[in-house]
Amino acid sequence: MSTLPPRAGRRCHNALNPLHSTVYFSPDLGKEMGELGIVDSDAAYFAARGAAMGAVGAGTVSAAFYNFNHELVARHLPAVWSVASPQAVIDARLRAADTTLRRLLGEEVIASAELAEAARLALRATEGCTRHARPLYAAHADLPVPDAPHLAYWHAATLLREHRGDAHLAALLAAGLDPVEAMVSHTATGKGMAPRWILATRGWRRADWDAAAERLRGRGLLDDANELTEAGTALRAGLEEATDRMDAAPYERLGAEGVERLTELGRGYLFAAASAGAFPDGLVGKG
Fold first, then answer.
1. Three-state DSSP class for 65?
2. One-character DSSP codes across 225-274
3. What residue numbers bound the domain in which 227 lies?
4. Residue in 154, 208, 141, 165 with CA at minimum distance from that of residue 66
5. Of 15, 269, 252, which is closest to residue 126 (Cα–Cα)?
6. How far apart are CA 94 and CA 23, in angstroms?
7. Largest distance between two CA atoms of the chain
8. Does a structural domain hold residue 21?
9. How far apart are CA 88 and CA 83, in angstroms?
10. Which of 69, 98, 134, 198 is least crowded, fewest Cβ atoms below 10 Å from its Cβ?
11. Does residue 283 belong to any structural domain of this protein?
């Protein structure tokens, strides 16, 4: 039986995950990858997030990332590894994370005892993670923990993000949602990425989006106004609950007091980063 309040692990993840994600929206990542010779933004993302798995091909990344069109991935992988090695990309991403966090949070926060505390708590949570059936988490878990507290915190957030993400993909498969259906239904909750961002970055066309919406309507999950039906709302809630169950161990390891403190600290850093312009306008929403 869980010793944590309901959804405490999810709330903690929701505080940590976006701060990890800031690097993917950061001009610092583009600069670092450009210096390696990777100038296409899609290639940079696939390489930066996938490098921990080694010089993998498009199939591996399409499977692990789930919601990207395989044709888009195949335009860049495995060719990107002839431009820069996975280790060079891993090093470049960490440099970008360093520059990004210093810019968004400021040097006073970077050097603070509170950030060092957050790093310790987040790393303790990762001790509860498991590798089996979690390819992205397992690959990142083999990377060394950076010495600097802000980078250790970012690394731990990465591990917790991919641990939950791998579990969520299992839940999506069990629910019978393909990549585009998963995105359409998530966007319909009002908490997912806006359609224009998805269509600009995931390699799908408007026709793919509309066809997925029609399939969801056929299952009684979406109505004619592209809003979730009662059944659709229940399905999305069930997906998160299933993911919570598969992702409970790290937060149980940390304990209720630790989870509460890490969530508090994480929300503060996320608010600071968002206030500093970490995320583009209109990223989330139904429009």
1. helix
2. TS-B-HHHHHHHHHHHHHHHHHT-HHHHHHHHHHHHHHHHHHHHHHHHHH
3. 8-275
4. 165
5. 252
6. 9
7. 54
8. yes
9. 10
10. 69
11. no
Phi, psi of 284 (to 5 degrees): -115, 140
Distance CA 76, CA 166 (A): 23
3-state secondary structure 136-155: HHHHHHCCCCCCCHHHHHHH
Which amino acid is present at 210?
Answer: D
Q: What tokens appear for 166 in the block?
A: 């791998």
Distances (CA, A) of 115 to 18, 64, 120: 16, 30, 9
Instruction: Flag whether 280 is in a domain.
Output: no
Of all residues in the chain, the percent with pLDDT exceeding 90 is: 97
Tokens 């789930």 belong to which residue?
Answer: 66
Predicted pLDDT at 3: 81
Give the pLDDT confidence of 216-250 residue by residue, as tens digits: 999 999 999 999 999 999 999 999 999 999 999 99
Is 264 domain-assigned?
Answer: yes
